[in-house]
Amino acid sequence: MVADIHPSNYELRLGILQSRREGVSVNVPDDVLEFLARKIVTNIRELEGALNRLVAHATLVGRTVSVEMAREVLSDLLRASNRLISIEDIQKQVSAHYNIRANDMFSSRRAAAIARPRQIAMFLAKDLTSLSYPAIGRSFGGRDHTTVMHAVKKIETLIAEDGALSADIDLLRGLLADGA
Question: Which one of 97, 98, 121, 127 is most buried, counting C-beta atoms within 10 A?
Fold first, then answer.
C-alpha cells in the first residue's frame, strides 16, 4: 500500500488545533492557535504536544493562555522549529516583500529603500534562526557582527514605535513559517 503524505499547511494545522481546543478545560484564544500553527511546522504530533504543554502549564500555574506565555513555555520547541528557516529564505521573502533585488541584500548600497529591508532581514535572521551575529553578517555580504547587532537593535526600536513595521514583520514571520 502506498500513501502519499504531504507536509501540513497552515490551514490544516490551525484546523487541527481548533478541534483539539474543544477538548481542553482551559480557554485558548484564537491568536494563540494562530501563533502555534505558524510557528510549529515540523509535524502534527509536535503541534498537539505544544497545545497540551500550554494547557498543562496554564492549569498547574494558574495563568491565562496568551501568545507571550506560549513563547515562554514553548521556547525550546519554537527554537527547534525556527532552525528550519534559512537565511536565504528570509532574504528572498524580504526582497520580494519590499520589491528589491535579492542581490541588494549583499550590496554596500546605503539607500533607505535598500538598507531598511536589509536590516529587517538581519533582524528576522537573528529572530528565526539559531545563527550567531558573525554568521548572519557573513550571509549578508561579509558584514561585521556589529552591523548585524545594530540592525537588530534598530528594528526592535522601530517595531515598538511603528505599528505598520510591526505588522510587516509579523506578516513576514508568518510567510516564512508557512514556506518552511
Answer: 121
Q: Which positions ≥6 away from 11 have C-beta within 8 Å?
A: none
Architecture of domain 87-179: Orthogonal Bundle (1.10)
- Alpha carbon 131 to chain centroid distance? 14
pTM of the model: 0.57
For domain 10-82, is the CATH number 1.10.8.60?
yes
Closest CA to 134 of 124, 149, 123: 149
Q: How would DSSP label each residue in 51-94?
A: HHHHHHHHHHH-PPP-HHHHHHHTHHHHHHHHTTS-HHHHHHHH
**Where are the domains positioned within the chain?**
10-82, 87-179
Nine-digit cell string for 47? 503541534
What letter does residue 7 receive in the DSSP assignment? P
